[in-house]
Write a structure and sequence with these properties.
The complex is a heterodimer. Chain A is α+β, with helices and mostly antiparallel strands. Chain A has helices at residues 11-23, 40-44, 63-72, 89-97, 107-114, 116-124, 141-151, 174-192, 249-265, 297-304, 308-316, 396-409, 419-427, 429-433, 440-452, 457-479, 490-500; strands spanning 4-7, 27-33, 47-52, 77-79, 101-102, 155-159, 169-171, 197-201, 207-215, 221-233, 236-242, 270-278, 284-290, 333-340, 342-343, 349-350, 353-354, 357-359, 366-370, 377-378, 385-393, 411-413. Chain A is globular, with a radius of gyration of 25 Å. Chain B has one helix at residues 79-86; strands at residues 2-6, 11-19, 22-27, 30-40, 43-48, 51-56, 64-67, 70-73, 75-78, 98-101, 106-111, 118-119, 124-130, 133-138, 143-148, 155-156, 161-165. In chain B, a hairpin with a 2-residue loop joins strand 5 (43-48) and strand 6 (51-56). Classes of the chains: A alpha+beta, B mainly beta.
Chain lengths: 501, 166
């Protein structure tokens, strides 16, 4: 086992990794940028080294600097967390060359799975289903129609040069197909100067379901069941849960087997995630494999009792997996809510500023993986995720009730967050009942945003009267000439300035 | 003193009667005992007829409080404002019109319009990169762009005036 590990990351994931290290009696080395001198991961670590200026390409993405610090501090291994250098083959290779261990899969596995086309090609050689469609872009309408007929309607027509939904069409039958291809080609031609299109099976009411896998150097591969990740906005996950309210044991077993096969195909070692799309008919298709620890890994930890970071470290040090597939059980239910510094009412634009008030929920079954504290500045340099609230209970209903309870307790003042948005999702009848698919957010967007600010008359009276009293107090303070600036937020100060002018 | 609590879709009249350290609220026929105690610089514990609420006042600059987590944007109109309104001086509130300011620091990557362009409410105005994400800023109202104060590629601070509509 390692004696010292450098964590090449920041924020909640750096803290998450270091916590397990300390429990395993492994010393931790933090790296930090100019903006992060007093960040929680620096305070937590045994040693901390300055990397460079705030922008990540001058700090957390600097291979050379991080390697130099690792050697200087005598770290035996580097944990990349997620994001930054976690899926960088070049960095993984350089760590090994420097005589240290990269806590992650071999560079070859990152390479195969990191490239969508390469991953698809690799998966076509296995029994794992991929979304049926054309391998190469098509220019000929007749040829396209033949493909559409083979894979079956509805199909999706995608512009070869496209992206962002441009030139994309859903077609339900042969009659409208030819017309739609023509339109897509013209759009694609004018937008990207390329009239070729891809034909792909359109999945109805798709679910985004992923499987956690663990693999060691000795050929053992197991899966730790699924995480349902269909609550997304801007293609980014907001709420995840395990087990999924959509899949049954038979489908779970088949998908788990496919996930293990995927990992075997790319000679995977470590913790990884195989993502699938599942349509309403419960057909599942390989989407991609993430060759790192995922943001939402805690929901799996909560229902399996397995510390994924500890397993990553054990496997990276060459030890075989101690857990066998038949030992993996699902205990209860876990739900994760991602808390972003974003304004849900303004289309989730990032929100920066100082955290002037902080109340983190606790109590039974309530876990918060974060890296925030009061008076901390949220800067625009990094990912706006502040942390994750994970609630566990013996069944789904209990986990839903616990999540709502904890979200109500959760209070971050001074910046906008997604706390109340998550609360609106958790109490939405469709989400509560389950199952739900990836269209959930677009479908119920209006109702969700309306629910966030819904208030009874009593609550409005409380709001108004408290505002009255607060303003009276501020008036009193400024009249009596006492300076009470210390304890007041910038917001209040700004407001006072405005009132005076 | 009489007050009106206004939100986007509701208006409630109350009368606030200071009663020693506490406050008595008359709402229609209801009498409410209101007791708010500051527990942290920006947080109050409220007991209203013994029902307990936690109220955050961090976002006062935006005229917003949170009650048990629920954010409420409101305006508290006092008797003077109510009287002015009765006289036909509709709304003493400043109308912010079409001044578009940045809420966060970032980089202006693309501006879709020129001075003189007509834009509809909700139409994208410009792209701004902040926190590793591209954000599309939309027009808050329909009108003609009268001023653009930044250039593409410019880095801007929070609160920078980007453009004006109308």
């Amino acid at each position: 086992m390692f004696k010292k590990i450098l964590v090449a990351n920041r924020g909640e994931i750096a803290l998450r990794v270091m916590r397990t290290c300390r429990e395993l009696n492994i010393e931790t080395v933090a790296v930090f940028s100019e903006a992060d001198r007093t960040a929680p991961h620096v305070l937590f670590a045994d040693e901390a080294y300055y990397l460079g200026p705030a922008p990540s390409n001058e700090s957390y993405l600097r291979h050379d600097k991080i390697l130099e610090i690792a050697l200087q501090s005598h770290a035996e291994a580097i944990h990349p967390g997620y994001g930054f250098l976690s899926e960088n083959t070049e960095f993984a290779r350089r760590v090994a060359e420097a005589g240290m261990v990269f806590i992650g899969p071999p560079a070859s596995a990152i390479k195969t799975m990191g490239d969508k086309t390469m991953a698809r090609q690799a998966m076509l050689q296995t029994d794992v289903p991929v979304v049926p469609g054309t391998e190469e872009p098509i220019d000929n309408v007749e040829e396209a129609l033949a493909v559409a007929k083979t894979i079956g309607f509805p199909v999706l027509i995608k512009a070869a040069g496209g992206g962002g939904g441009k030139g994309m069409r859903i077609v339900n039958n042969t009659q409208t197909f030819i017309d739609a291809v023509g339109k897509a080609q013209r759009e694609s031609k004018s937008a990207f100067g390329d009239s070729r299109v891809y034909i792909e099976k359109y999945l109805e009411e798709p679910h985004h379901i992923e499987f956690q896998i663990l693999a060691d150097e000795h050929g053992n591969i197991i899966h730790l069941n699924e995480r349902e990740c269909s609550i997304q906005r801007r293609y980014q996950k907001v709420i995840e849960e395990s087990p999924s309210p959509f899949i049954d044991q038979d489908l779970r077993d088949r998908m788990g087997k496919a996930a293990v096969e995927t990992a075997r195909k790319c000679d995977y070692v470590g913790a990884g995630t195989v993502e699938f799309l599942v349509d309403k008919h419960k057909n599942f298709y390989f989407l991609e494999m993430n060759t790192r620890l995922q943001v939402e890994h805690p929901v799996t930890e909560m229902v399996t009792g397995i510390d994924l970071v500890a397993e990553q470290i054990r496997v990276a040090s060459g030890l075989p997996l101690e857990i066998k597939q038949e030992d993996v059980k699902i205990y209860g239910h876990a739900i994760e809510c991602r808390i972003y510094a974003e304004d849900a009412a303004q289309d989730f634009t990032p929100s920066t500023g100082k955290i002037v008030m902080l109340q983190i929920p606790d109590g039974a079954g309530t876990r918060f993986d974060g890296a925030i504290r009061q008076d901390m500045e949220i800067t625009p340099y990094y990912d706006p995720m502040l942390g994750k609230l994970i609630c566990w209970a013996k069944d789904r209903e209990g986990a839903l009730n616990r999540s709502e309870r904890a979200l109500r307790e959760f209070y971050i003042g001074g910046i906008e967050t997604t706390i109340q948005f998550c609360r609106a999702v958790i109490r939405h009848p469709v989400f509560r009942q389950g199952p739900y698919d990836t269209h959930f957010y677009t479908q119920f967007q209006k109702a969700l945003h309306a629910d966030i600010t819904r208030a009874t008359e009593d609550v409005l009276v409380v709001a108004g009267a408290t505002l009255y009293q607060h303003k009276e107090q501020l008036k009193h303070i400024s009249e009596s000439g006492k300076s009470d600036r210390k304890g007041r937020s910038n917001w209040v100060r700004a407001q006072m300035g405005r009132e005076q002018s | 003193m009489k007050y009106e609590i206004n939100t986007i879709d509701q208006a409630i009249q109350i009368e606030i009667l200071p009663d020693k350290e506490k406050i008595m609220i008359q709402q229609g026929k209801n009498k409410l005992m209101f007791d708010a105690v500051r527990v942290q610089p920006e947080m109050y514990s409220v007991l209203m007829n013994n029902r307990s609420f936690v109220v955050g006042v961090c976002s006062m600059g935006k005229n917003r409080v949170t009650v048990n987590g629920t954010p409420i944007s409101l305006q508290l109109l006092d008797a003077v404002h109510l009287h002015l309104r009765e006289l036909g001086w509709e709304s003493m509130q400043e109308t912010k019109a079409g001044l578009i300011e940045t809420q966060i620091p970032g980089l202006i990557t693309q501006i879709f319009h020129q001075v003189g362009d007509m834009v509809n409410e909700g139409e994208p105005l410009f792209l701004m990169e902040a926190m590793k994400m591209e954000n599309e800023i939309k027009a808050p109202l329909t009108g003609r762009i009268s001023k653009i104060s930044v250039k593409e590629g410019q880095t801007v601070d929070k609160g920078t005036n980007i453009m004006e509509i109308g």
